[in-house]
Specification:
heterodimer; A: 115 residues; mainly alpha; 77% helix; rod-shaped; B: 398 residues; three-stranded antiparallel β-sheet; two-stranded antiparallel sheet
Amino acid sequence: MNPIQPRAHWLDRMFSPHMLLRRAVMLSLVFLLCEVAGLRVYTCILCGTSPDGQPVGVLAVFLTGFYLFFYFAFICAVPVLLLASLILLTTKRLSKISKTSTETDHEKQDINSVR
Amino acid sequence: MKHAVLLRALGSLIALGAAAAIWFPAMHLFFRPNMDDYFAVKSGISPKARAIAAYQLDLWKDPGKRTREVARMRTSNAEWDFMGRTFLVLSLANMALHEPDRQEEYLKVMDRIIEETIRFENDKGIYFFLMDYAREGKFSSDQPASIFIDGETALMLGARRMVRERTDYKPMMKQRIDRLVKMMTKGPVLCAESYPNECWMFCNTVALATLRISDVLDGSDHSAFLKKWVATAKTKLIDVKSGLLFSSFGLDGTPLDGPEGSSIWMVSHCLQIVDPSFANDQYARARKELATTVFGFGYAKEWPACWRGSPDIDSGPIVPVLDASAGSSGLALIGASAFKDSVYLKALITSLNFAAFPNKQNNTLRYCASNQVGDAVILYSLVNGPLWDKVLRAKKAS
C-alpha cells in the first residue's frame, strides 16, 4: 500500500480543470442567490449606517460579511478560476496533440524502417 | 507517481497564477466609467447625476422615506443628517445654475431643507445635529455655538441666495456671518470650535468660503480677515512634514488630529474661493500624499505616511494593506472634480462602481455601501462648478 496515493489523488482532483470550473459555477450561483435575496442593501454597514434604522445587530453583520465574501469571490475569484481552467484545458489538449503527432511520427518511422 | 502528481499540481498553480496575472490588471475595465455619463460635456446635468439627484429629491418629496433614511444615519452619527442637507443644497444650487429651466423645482427643495434645518436647530438646539460627546464639554463662548452648525447653515443660505435672492434669508445669513467672524477672531489661531475645544479645519474653511460668498452677495469685505487667516494657517496649522493642514486642533492651535483625507479634500475645495493658489498647493500635496491608484482603481488614504491616526466615524473603515479609507475616498471625488483632475477622478469612479454597490431603480441611483450624506457628496462632485465660478467671477468683477 502506498501512503502517498490518497494525497496525490486529492491534489489531482483539486486542481483539475473541471473542478476549477465547478467551483466557479458554485460561487456564481451563491452570489446570484445573495443578489436575489437583496443582501446588497446590507453593505451600508460598511459606512456605519444601519440597514433599518435600528442599532446594527449580529445578523446584519453576518449577512453583510456573507454578501461581501461572495461578491468579491464572484468578481475576483470566478474569472481567475475560469481562465485557469481554460489555460489547463488548452495546455492539456496541446500536449495531447503533440503527443499524438509524436506517436504518429514514430509509427511512420517504424513503418519506413520495416519497409 | 508522486512526482507526476506534484508536477501536475504545480502546473495548475502556475495556470492559476497566470490567470490572476491576466485578470487583475484587466478587472478595472469592467468598472471603468464612460465619463460622459457622469459629467455633462458642455452644460446641463449628466445622466448619472440626474439619477442620484432623483433619489435625493424623492426623499424630500416623501416624508416617510426621508424619516427612515435619516434614522438609518442618526443611529451612528447625527452630523450626517446635517451634512447631508448641506451637500444636497450645494448640489441643487449648482444644478439650478446648470439648468435655469428647472430652477423653480430645485429652489423649492432647497428652501424646504433650509427651513426645516433652522427649525430643528431652534426647537431642539445645536446638539441635535452634533454627536453626543458635544454635551460633555463646554464651549468657550457664553452661549453654546458651533462653527459646524453656523458655517454650514450660512453656506446653505448663501448658496440659495446665489441662485436667486430671497430677502428674508439676507438678515438670517448676516446674523450667522457676524457670529462666525466674532467666534473666529476670538480664537488665537483665528479658528472657532465645532465641538468644545475642538476646532475642525473642515468647518473653519466652510466658514471662510461662506464669508467670501457673503461679500459677493451683500457687498461686505472680509478680504483682510481671509488674508490674515491664510497667513496664520500657513504658520501655525500645517503639518511640517507633509505641508498639509491639520484636520483638528484645540482653540490654541495644538493639533488633535494630523492631516486627514476626510478633511483635506473639502478644505482645499473651500479654499478655492478664498485663496486659489493655497488651495492648489493643498490639493497637490493631498494628491501626492493620499491618492493612490492600483490596477486602475483609485482610492484615498486617510493619513499621509508621516502621520498615523486611528480609524473613526469620519475615516470610515480602513481597508487593511491598501490603507484605503471610505470617507477620504468619497470626499476625494469632490477634490478631483473641483481641481479637474480627470485621471484620478476616473479611477475614483471606477472604484465607486466596483465597491460602493450601485443600485439603480426606476431612473434613480443610490449607492448601497453609502448613505444619504455619502450620495449627496457624490452628487455634489458630479455637478459642482457653477456656484464657485459665479463667486470667483463676482470677486474678479468687484
